[in-house]
Specification:
This protein is an alpha/beta fold. It has 63 helices and 27 strands. The strands form four sheets. It has an eight-stranded mixed beta sheet, sandwiched between helices. Strands 17-16-15-18-19-20-21 form a seven-stranded parallel beta sheet. Strand 18, helix 48 and strand 19 form a beta-alpha-beta unit. Helix 23 runs antiparallel to helix 24, helix 26 packs antiparallel against helix 27 and helix 30 crosses helix 42.
Length: 1339
């Protein structure tokens, strides 16, 4: 007999097509549910879809979405869930499931909006907040994370993990009161951890409740065990590096297991870590007196004494510490004692201490005076005196050591007789001096930390009686000489970090060697170009015989044969340990491209950048394609002391087109191209030999054609069109009267591996510039090789088949008509173009030669070497020299322009708008305006790029690629300050902190110091520090405040404490309104930050033209629709963030619509009174941000869909600002809002919260002030709409801008700045030449 369920199912299917009666609908619904439960999804869906739309409730619609999702029809499921949510905003499950689908589709931002709306639906379900939390990116501010956590608290009241996340956010934000409550709640549901008990005690301690703090601290120590039981709660502070707190806790809550000596030692340790070395010295001395057998206390006493310059106490302390050791040999303490003794001038004792630590010299060669003059020994030494042909630095060092040994041996032998020449004899003074000179000469090649060669050299110096020199050598036998408490491995875990600390250590510790030259070309891929030409001219000349030459090259197979086997030349791989030391210490640096981003030129170093040719394609800011791809080239040009160019076009491109005209302080020389000297002076015999190597016999009547195209990819983008290349080569080789050879670009070599080419490839060991002397015809495109070939006065074919694409993607300085050569734009014409060249077409005329290669006479290497190495400025008429330090760019007449260096993050907001307006207002004839940017940050953010593209043309962009190298203790100080900014007051700490940032200023701009350096954002301590570091070098520095900083600190950004501490290191703290300045002075004083006379003010400027022109554009359709459907439309603009208070404005709109009878769910009763109150209000919000999901959810929950429109971020918001009936700014705190200025400029009525900055602007212009609650905002809006004259008026924006600019200059340049400005009628007209105009001047 069939079951009841089976019968019902059969009946349901039978009647599913006739659903007119409610009973039938219920039956089909029942059957569909059963089919769903049984997993028959297709049948269940068919039955559900039979139910009429009017009969489908939320549950049925939601079930259809679930079925689609289970069938992997995700788009249909998402569409269904969205429809359900729109119909029923109380259906949290629809929002939740839509959010889950979006998260599956890797769209967490959209998913978070749906999860927020699920929470706002009123349904309590912990899944909603769980999922919302997982959508937050790691960069989410803690205040926003806390909001999400608190929104999910009702569903997680007994969830210990959830409570701990809330606690973590509260502690991060410094919310001690709420954190205390959270800890109490957590204690009810779980046992508090040792760390949580400590936090509980710490909160009580800060509240002054010593009794409760003691109880909690005791429980924390008991739970933690180990050191905490002995040291007390201070151990928790020590473990997180909060040494100031540890010091405080040790004094008030010392551990029960600590002796008096232990306590004093720990107090000294805390002071030591705080860099309070004088105070630490007293504590360590007391600890040592209380426990004389504590070697550690004595060692620490020695260390801090050394750091305060008390070397006598330091040496004695180290000695006493060593006496406590049973086995003092090889103790680090001996090394530190040796350093102190050496600096006290007690060199013999210092050597004894150093050798105690380092042990005897290796290889049994410790003392020449004790070596026997055996044949075997002398043969060994003589064998080592000849370096191998492909010498490394250590080969040259070892051969020099052998020479020194032989010299000392011979001196002893000749001085003491032949029988036993070495017995007990002192080295003659002359021989000792010679040995010392040889040691000092070779010492720069010996690595810091190289114990093998350093120890041998030190022993030789000691044998020669040069004990001071021996001490110098041994002190650098440690790679990191002072690493107490700091493990170099912890700071060098990655290859880049390890390179940084090694390079910085060499920079700061090792001296610059005036006889060391570091040469580099083509990023170490080869040895060639201008550096090789200059090197070859000078290497064998006696006046340069004192120099040691280091070539950076990665492939020893690429070393030219004539460089091998030389006693004064060594080779090192790029970025090797040796390379970094020589880069840090060489007196002369030569490069034809750029050194790595970590490179910092020291003041004593000379740097010659030769570049590598005349540019046809664009460089610098003119270069199209990648954003600021020239960042490290610009920095290298800026750091060079000499910049070489073959002609004025190149000089302009390297200096002006890299934005360096106003900041470069080196010398430029236009004196020809050294790399062309060889080709211009090559003998006929050598030319024949070279042609023979290329396949041309002496009786071969064919002409030699070289094809040398430019590289079309990037350094990292390796692409090559092989088919097109093969077709091009085949077309050229089709002529019988030519032999075509192909010069492969170094970046193309691997891409052509295994490809069978129809022509010969030029061997890698043939230098390109020598090759040009052998060539009859050159075929190229946009490569600088065409300018190198011009002096040969032979034909050139310019094969530019892709010129339009290339011009659009990369850019060209010159039109093809300006460039000598025979233009060819099609492969089919290539062979005939070569034929025309063979009969003399395409040869440069005299005008072209004078423009592009005026000084090519085969002696450019001589001129450049004499100029760079010898300071010979008398080079005759074939050199144009300019010293940019003596002749900086001037403004109008003889008036030197002031240089301003800004930093701004260019995040699209009111700060960016005000910044752009300020830059636009600065007259480039009076001010050189420079903006420092991080290209890597810009490239990753399209919104910032939009602001960047709006920079005025006269703004020079200075790039900051990478970061400065750091020494270990400097990095430790920077890290410690970031964690505990209030803890450090000692000069020693800040000396180390500022050393890092001053090095960064030199890495970016070298010797240049701007007149004023301005941090325009004012939110990041790294940028404030960098700007302040320029102040330590002579700039006037300032940091802007765009908001009520105490509120920003308390509500959102606890890390602002770091910025506040750094205010004392800038000359001016500039608030963007006088009222804001007063507020911040008072508010920050309450936080213990005294601004004194530093607090100034300068109102924001406005780009009037942009606002008024922008307002004339059409408004967005969504805004137009909103206006059509409502009697009044309000607007607001700002990032969707807590302090902007848009949620209160949305609630105010709900109140107004409800009070005015215009709620969407209130149709009215049609009475006359109802129509009088039927005022409909819409709201358009411009902006985006982290709270967008929350605001959308609030709009839905208040039934305001269709009445509140989110327009998102807009490049041109002015049609909205100008088209609204009322602009409302409901912020909880503000600076001086640019949006208010823009709105008043357009004449729109204004309501703004009663804040200092808003109040001042309304006093200057017009508007209605309001409170910040929904009720207050609603009342102010009602007042403004009822009486428009109160909210609307006139605003003299021109006068505002003029006054704001004067105040700005007064603040950033100092009060004397205005007095030094020319009168208005005397000022020169502003000159903003385009790049093209500048090029024309050069041409």
């Amino acid at each position: 007999m069939a079951s009841k369920d089976a019968v019902l199912r059969k009946m349901g299917r039978a009647v599913s097509g006739r659903l007119r009666l409610p009973a039938v609908t219920r039956l089909v619904r029942y059957v569909a549910a059963k089919e769903y439960e049984d997993g028959n999804l297709a049948e269940a869906k068919r039955l559900y879809e039979k139910i009429p739309e009017s009969a489908r409730d939320t549950a049925i619609r939601l079930r259809l979405g679930v079925i689609s999702e289970r069938q992997e029809q995700l788009e249909a499921a998402l569409r269904t869930y969205t429809e359900v949510a729109d119909r029923d905003p109380a259906c949290g499950e629809a929002f939740y499931r839509a959010g889950c689908l979006l998260k599956r589709q890797d769209d967490p931002e959209a998913a978070s909006v749906f999860f927020s709306r699920a929470i706002s639906s009123g349904v309590r379900d912990r899944r909603y907040s769980d999922k919302l939390l997982t959508c937050l990116p790691e960069s989410t501010p803690q205040w926003q994370r806390l909001e999400v956590l608190l929104s999910g608290l009702p569903e997680h009241e007994t969830d210990a993990a959830w409570l701990r996340k809330i606690l973590q956010a509260q502690l991060h934000l410094g919310l001690n009161g709420p954190a205390r409550c959270t800890l109490e709640s957590l204690a009810y549901v779980d046992r508090l951890s040792a760390q949580e008990l400590f936090e509980q005690g710490l909160i009580a301690h800060r509240d002054g409740d010593r009794a409760s703090a003691t109880v909690s601290f005791a429980a924390a120590c008991e739970a933690a065990g180990g050191k905490a039981c002995r040291k007390g709660p201070a151990q928790f502070a020590c473990s997180r590096g909060d040494w100031k707190l540890a010091l405080e806790l040790l004094e008030l809550y010392p551990g029960e297991g600590m002796s008096r000596a232990d306590l004093v030692y720990e107090l000294g340790l805390c002071l030591d870590r705080l860099c309070e070395y004088e105070r630490a010295q007293g504590q360590y001395a007391l600890a040592a007196s209380l426990d004389p057998g504590s070697g550690n206390s004595l060692y620490k006493l020695g260390l801090v004494s050394e750091r305060v310059g008390d070397l006598v106490t330091a040496e004695r302390s180290y000695l006493e510490a060593l006496r406590t050791l049973k086995k003092p040999a090889r103790s680090w303490w001996s090394y530190r004692r040796g350093v102190c003794l050496a600096r006290l001038g007690r060199h013999d004792e210092a050597l004894e201490s150093f050798w105690s630590y380092l042990g005897p010299a290796p290889r049994g060669l410790a003392s020449v005076s004790k070596q026997r003059a055996s044949t075997g020994f002398l043969a060994l030494v003589r064998a080592k005196s000849s370096p191998p042909p492909r010498q490394r630095p250590e080969d040259l060092v070892e051969s020099t050591i052998s020479d020194i040994m032989l010299g000392l041996h011979e001196a002893l032998r000749s001085h003491g007789g032949a029988d036993d020449p070495d017995a007990g004899m002192d080295v003659p003074p002359a021989a000792a001096r010679t040995a010392a000179r040889s040691i000092r000469h070779i010492l720069p090649l010996v690595l810091k930390g190289d114990r093998s060669n350093r120890l041998v050299l030190a022993q030789l110096a000691q044998d020669a009686g040069q004990v001071e020199l021996a001490c110098e050598i041994l002190e650098q036998a440690e790679e990191f000489g002072c690493k107490d408490g700091l493990d170099p491995r912890a700071y060098g875990r990655t290859a880049g970090a390890a390179r940084n600390i090694r390079y910085a250590e060499a920079l700061e510790v090792l001296p610059v060697s005036p006889h060391l030259v570091l040469w580099e070309s083509n990023h170490g891929a080869s040895i060639g170009c201008h550096p090789l030409a200059v090197f070859r001219w000078m290497v064998d000349r006696p006046e340069y015989s004192h120099l040691i030459h280091v070539w950076a090259v990665n492939d020893l197979g690429a070393v030219p044969a004539d460089l091998l086997g030389r006693r004064n030349v060594v080779f090192v791989p790029l970025h090797s340990t040796e390379y970094m030391q020589y880069l840090a210490t060489a007196g002369y640096l030569v490069n034809n491209v750029s050194f790595a981003p970590y490179f910092v030129r020291r003041r004593e170093q000379r740097y010659l950048n030769t570049w590598h040719g005349t540019p046809f394609k664009t460089l610098g800011r003119s270069m199209r394609g990648g954003l600021l791809d020239y960042e490290n080239l610009q920095r290298n040009f800026q750091l060079s002391t000499t910049l070489m160019a073959p002609n004025e076009l190149t000089r302009w491109a390297l200096i002006e087109d890299h934005d360096l005209l106003d900041v470069y302080r080196g010398r430029t020389i236009v004196a020809g191209s050294p790399r062309l000297d060889t080709s211009l002076t090559m003998s006929g015999q050598d030319r024949k030999a070279l042609r023979g190597r290329l396949g041309m016999a002496e009786d071969d009547e064919r002409r030699l054609v070289l094809f040398a195209p430019t590289w079309r990819g990037g350094v990292s983008k390796r692409e090559l069109d092989r088919e097109a290349l093969l077709a091009d080569l085949t077309a050229m080789a089709s002529r019988d009267d030519v032999l075509v050879v192909y010069r492969v670009h170094r970046l193309s070599e691997k891409l052509l591996a295994g490809v069978d080419l129809p022509v010969s490839v030029v061997p890698k060991d043939i230098d390109t510039n020598e090759l040009l002397a052998a060539v009859d015809v050159l075929v190229t495109d946009y490569s600088s090789i065409l300018f190198d070939f011009l002096p040969q006065k032979r034909p050139i074919v310019l094969y530019m088949h892709d010129i339009e694409d290339y011009r659009a993607e990369r850019g060209l300085y010159l039109d093809p008509e300006e460039v000598p050569g025979l233009a060819c734009y099609d492969r089919g014409e290539l062979a005939s173009a070569i034929g025309r060249a063979l009969v003399g077409e395409g040869i440069a005329d005299e005008e072209a030669l004078a423009r592009y290669c005026p000084y090519e006479d085969g002696r450019a290497s001589v001129r450049l070497a004499r100029f760079f190495f010898d300071d010979d400025n008398d080079l005759g008429p074939r050199a144009i020299i300019r010293d940019h330090a003596l002749d900086p760019a001037l403004g109008d007449g003889a008036r030197k322009r002031r240089t301003l260096l800004f930093h701004a993050s260019m995040i699209p907001n009111g700060i960016a708008s005000a910044f752009l307006a300020l830059l636009e207002a600065l007259d480039p004839s009076l001010y050189s305006v420079n903006l420092i940017v991080e290209p890597s940050v810009l490239r990753g953010n399209e919104n910032r790029q939009e602001i960047f593209r709006r920079l005025p043309r006269h703004v020079h962009v200075i790039c900051k690629p990478g970061a400065a190298p750091w020494r270990i203790h400097e990095r430790s100080c920077v890290n410690d300050f970031a964690r505990h900014p209030d803890a450090y007051t000692s000069q020693s700490f800040w000396d180390a902190y500022w050393a890092y940032y001053e090095r960064e200023t030199r890495r970016i701009l070298g010797d240049f110091v701007p007149d004023a350096a301005i941090e325009y954002d004012g939110y990041a301590e790294t940028w404030v520090s960098l700007i302040a570091a320029w102040g330590r070098r002579g700039s006037r520095t300032s940091c802007y405040q765009h908001n009520q900083m105490d509120n920003e600190y308390r509500d959102k950004y606890p890390n602002l404490r770091r910025v506040f501490v750094l205010y004392s290191d800038v000359d001016a703290v500039v608030a963007v309104s006088p009222g804001l300045a007063r507020h911040n002075r008072t508010g920050l004083a309450g936080l213990g930050i005294g601004l004194s006379q530093r607090q100034l003010s300068a109102r924001n400027l406005l780009d009037i033209e942009r606002v008024r022109l922008g307002a004339q554009a059409p408004a967005p359709d969504a805004f137009t629709a909103l206006k059509d459907e409502h009697d009044f439309v309000l607007t607001t603009m700002g990032r969707m963030s807590m302090e902007k208070n848009q949620a209160a404005l949305i609630e105010a709109v709900a109140l107004l619509r409800e009070q005015d009878g215009a709620r969407s769910d209130d149709p009215g009763d049609g009475t006359e009174d109802d129509s009088a109150q039927g005022l409909s209000i819409g709201l358009a919000i411009v902006g985006s941000g982290v709270l967008e999901g929350t605001l959308r959810a609030r709009i839905d929950s208040l039934g305001l869909a269709g009445h509140v429109t989110l327009l998102g971020q807009m490049d041109n918001p002015f049609p909205v600002l100008g088209g609204a009936d009322l602009f409302v700014l409901p912020s909880l705190h503000e600076g001086q809002p640019v949006t208010l200025l823009e709105t008043m400029t357009l004449g729109t009525a204004v309501v703004a919260s009663d804040l200092p900055g808003n109040r001042e602007l309304i006093a200057l212009g017009y508007g209605v002030l309001s409170g910040t609650s929904p009720q207050d905002i609603a009342q102010a809006i009602r007042t403004a709409l009822a009486d428009p004259l109160r909210a609307r008026g006139t605003f003299d924006v021109q006068e505002h801008n003029a006054r704001s600019l004067r105040d700005t200059l007064d603040a950033v340049l100092g009060s004397e700045a205005l007095h030094q400005q020319p009168k208005e009628d005397e000022a020169s007209p502003r000159s903003r030449c385009s790049r093209g105009a500048s090029q024309g001047a050069i041409a």
